[in-house]
Amino acid sequence: MAKILKIYQQNPQENLIDEAVKVLQNGGVIIYPSDTIYTIGCDIYNYKAMERLAQIKGIKMDKQKFSIICNDLSHLSEFTKPIETSTFRFLKTHLPGAFTFILEANRNLPTAYKGHKTVGIRVPDHIVPQMIVEKLGHPIVSTSIHDDDEILEYSTDPELIAEKYDKLVDIVIDSGYGDNTASTIVDLTSGEPEVIRQGKGIL
């Protein structure tokens, strides 16, 4: 059964953040809030956890397109090819924020991303995932929680999310009601921003 941790933006308790980080370090899968929708993720360097995440999503590992969640732009050079100064300035202008930016990947991506030429980078404007990444010491991965409802694409109620994923994940972080609009996906691989999916973020 998934453990529910109530961690709110106004006063996030460090001991609860530490508990979530410990679960990630041990190969666990967690559901956590962001500045858009609730997402599900794990430690980017734990291959078995990534396999578990893919299984939950019902996809094969070589088909996964999990975004990388960072707490700032310092992790960019670890996973992406060198970017132009103008592109970096553009990123700084829009992050943290409700965007997923597609950039050219380098060869240092973890094993789970083998063969990927691009990678999606997120820096959510939400203290909880930022603190988790900071304490973990490296990024976590992110994939959306889709709802089975034909009208509601994303679940917003953490209690209902916890009920649905109770036997699939280790922790559900309840940070209050989430948004029902995902991030805006912007492709920067050509140097010019191209909106692939319009979401919450407005360029």
TrEMBL record:
PROSITE patterns: YRDC. GO terms for molecular function: double-stranded RNA binding. InterPro entries: DHBP_synth_RibB-like_a/b_dom, Sua5-like_dom, SUA5_domain. Pfam families: Sua5_yciO_yrdC (PF01300). Residues 14-201 form the YrdC-like domain. NCBIfam families: L-threonylcarbamoyladenylate synthase. PANTHER family: DHBP SYNTHASE RIBB-LIKE ALPHA/BETA DOMAIN-CONTAINING PROTEIN, THREONYLCARBAMOYL-AMP SYNTHASE. This is tRNA threonylcarbamoyl adenosine modification protein, Sua5/YciO/YrdC/YwlC family. It comes from Epilithonimonas mollis.
